Amino acid sequence: MDFKLWELLRHCVLVYMILELQWRPVVSAPEEHKSCSDLLSTISLSKLLHHEAKDLLKHYITFHGPRSNSSTEDVPDSTVSGVNVSEKLQDVYVKNELFRLHVLKVVQHHSEIFLNKEPVVGPLSRVKDRLLYHSIKVKHLLAGFFPDVPLPSKPALPRLTAGHTYAKKEYGWLVLVRLRDWEEHVLQLLEEMKNMCGQQRLKRLLHTFNSLL
Ligand SMILES: *[C@@H]1O[C@H](CO)[C@@H](O)[C@H](O)[C@H]1NC(C)=O
Ligand SMILES: *[C@@H]1O[C@H](CO)[C@@H](O)[C@H](O)[C@H]1NC(C)=O
């Protein structure tokens, strides 16, 4: 091919790539695209859950008074651990289930001892449902971004010692505070994962570029 024509072609392809990157949010590869839209909807859900967890804690404090920070129950900490995104996402999946089990326990205490009283029962029940939905979304993300990584098995609820009413109140505080803080870390991870969608798009475009020349 004539050198000038060749250069012109390269130039056109480059312009095409830049336009594609800037103007088209969606480029072929349906599975990858689906994972990225799953990611965005999971971020929305996580933000909602974070907001609801904060709201619930506020109502819990209104009902039970300020926290004393003395519960010794085995409640998961609020970190997201792992060396890479796939490990972190697996950790989120397992902790999601643990938090859900603990929140179910708090729901049970609230109905047995505190007779489902407002203002706690409404927000508590919303957070309980949201956690279930959140875990399904995280499962989809794991399957979409890391199809080769097996889904971790679901944990069992650790043994609880909380016996008397006050200890159960304390336990509820601990669960809700940790849940709120954990959700913040989950959101950070999901925001980081947005880069993976950018990279996937760039990789596809480079592939297009190479195959055109
Ligand atoms: C419990 O800890 C939180 C922060 O971790 C603090 O804001 C709160 O004042 C503490 N409550 C008591 C009663 O010490
Ligand atoms: C994440 O790190 C673990 C442990 O080093 C490794 O086995 C796994 O393959 C890594 N996953 C990805 C997707 O890089």
Strand content: under 5%
The rough form would be described as elongated
Order of helices and strands: HHHHH
Unreliable stretches covering 5 or more consecutive residues: none
| Number of structurally distinct domains | 1
Number of strands: 0
What is shown here, in short?
It comes from Pleuronectes platessa (European plaice). This protein has one domain: Growth Hormone, Chain: A (Up-down Bundle), CATH 1.20.1250. 74% of the residues lie in helices and 0% in strands.
Could you explain how this protein is built, in words?
- With 213 residues, the chain is mostly helical.
- Helix content is 74%, strand content 0%.
- Helix 2 (30-64) runs antiparallel to helix 4 (121-145) and helix 3 (85-112) packs antiparallel against helix 4.
- The longest helix has 48 residues, at 165-212.
- The structure holds 2-acetamido-2-deoxy-beta-D-glucopyranose (2 copies).
